[in-house]
Amino acid sequence: MTFSLVARCADTGMFGLAISSSSPAVAARCSFARAGVGAVASQNVTDPGLGPLTLDLMEQGKTAPEAVEAMTAQAKFIEYRQVLAVDTAGRTAIHSGPNSLGIWTQAQAEDVASGGNLLANNGVPQAIVDGFLSASGHIGDRLIAAMRAGLAAGGEAGPVHSAGMKIVDKVSWPVADLRCDWTEGCPIEAIATAWDVYKPQLDAYIQRALDPRVAPSYGVPGDE
């Protein structure tokens, strides 16, 4: 019911994740990232607890492959789970249980990993990885390009209705956390539109949190 990618920007150290599904509010259950640690997607008959667990293991010093291996040793019903991870060195790891749904497959490279289930075809994750690696600019732009590439390659077997994108960088909260929890249109394009609006304001939102005294004004009626 889902296709996704986790990624690291080698230039900035930012981590990001993007995901889409026919299920509602997929990003609320499946997307996890921690600045200075990594990014994890936990999907397919989802256990949301596997995201924080895998991040904890990486924060304790395990590589992404080591953390995913340790996670699978601890988790229940792991044969139903699909988990993707990337760490601070750009190492990636994927677990896809044999009970993943429908056509399921995965692809990975340095700094990026993609996986999906109930896919239209088994080439979708590789298209997502290739889309990320061939794109340039901010990690958010590259995540959007990757998801568009996955959708163009066939995406999910049925229509997708929700999507999300999360980015972390240096601070303890996501610097971008954009979601479309349900639409009859294209949720990936809804996220892309939201990113076009949010991206120019991202640094200002961080500055308002760190020191509002020197932050830019809101530029909205009533903030004269």
From TrEMBL:
Record Pfam families: DUF1028
Stretches assigned to coiled coil: none
InterPro entries xrefs: DUF1028, Ntn_hydrolases_N
Highest taxon above the source species: Bacteria
UniProt-recorded name of the protein: Fimbrial assembly protein FimA
Protein species of origin: Ruegeria denitrificans
